[in-house]
Amino acid sequence: MTINELYDIYLQHPQVQTDTRKLQPGDLFFALKGANFNGNEFALQALQAGAAYAIVDEEIDANNKQLLQVPDVLTALQQLAKYHREQLDIPFIAITGSNGKTTTKELVHAVLSSHYKTYTTKGNLNNHIGIPLTLLQVKRDAQMAVVEMGANHLQEIAGYCQYTLPTHGIITNCGKAHLEGFGSAEGVRKGKGELYDFIRANGGSIFAFDDYDYLHSMSAGIEKIYWYGTQNGNIVGHAGKHDAFLSVTFTKGVSFAELQTQLVGTYNLPNVLCAVAIGKYFGVPEEKIKHAVESYLPSNSRSQLIMLGSNTVILDAYNANPSSMKAAIENFAVMPGDNKVMLLGGMAELGNDSEREHQQLVALIDQYPFKSVVLVGKYFNNIPHHYIHLPDAEAAKEWLLQQQLAHATILVKGSRAMQMEKVIS
User: Fold this and answer.
1) Annotated binding site: which residue ranges?
2) Annotated binding site for ATP
């Protein structure tokens, strides 16, 4: 089974699934393997559920013409995605970074899709399986594609670029995330910088936040750069007054003076500026840019503002690392309100830096007069502090219910593994 032959089949059955529970009649089923599962064992079940074909890499039934055997299913999926990508002569915008990838991706998609037929990563399908699936969802009517790339070790982004073939790139930032895999902050920059390496080698363009000095050095040698920032750039804007929702005042690059977003936190400013910059670069009318950003509603526990009775909850519990935690706490400190309560889950994947980073987090909290602070999970076990310490999100939820708070402002944040959204569920 060659990739050309597989592509002909894909064109007839362009819906691809790797999970039999999501199969629809006529889909292609790719029988992926993992540490704890073997999709080949579900191939016949997939066919019974209506799959047109099942792509496998084990001998199952040589007489079944709906079973297409390849040397390795994951490799075949990635090669198919690359071949499909090569048929599409449109801008492919790749987004990576330590923080803000998904929010930036959603904002950019909102802006571009207001004017162009635009496909993008669904949810956070941003790994070696999710990215090929995203590419195969891009149809022939596409005018733009926006692809999110996550990574926790070196050479991961470089690998994704080999089949995504991005024409444009964005590194939102390089913070202290996945230090366990990258080894150091410098390792993070090197890993995320693999996107710039591909763009540089292939004559592409990037969009970059002018305020981050390291993006200037990382982008050296890239000729086509569209800058956005708070002082300099093609698009210049800064955060407005500290209300619950971020407002942005523009001084260069667009005719409208202000945007009022539905995003919590000034740390979302670069994400908004990026979306506006991309809209301008690709000729989206300004009124559409403004409306798209102002209409965007965050979801999935990212910078959400939720009212619980008389209490205002900022739910930012999709993920956390030292950089995003610092930004969230500092933003929370300057928000209006006196009755402020924080429930913070631990930060995962920090390796040998974990204890030091959690101690620095406590030192940061010490600088502010919050009414109550609850630290949640094992990562705080050996950290000296005078705050409430609870074992998990369920215990934190029980504590919060017992407080019977009224007219309070509450920040809930933590790493994905902590499932801090349970605190208010």
Assistant:
1) 97-103
2) 97-103
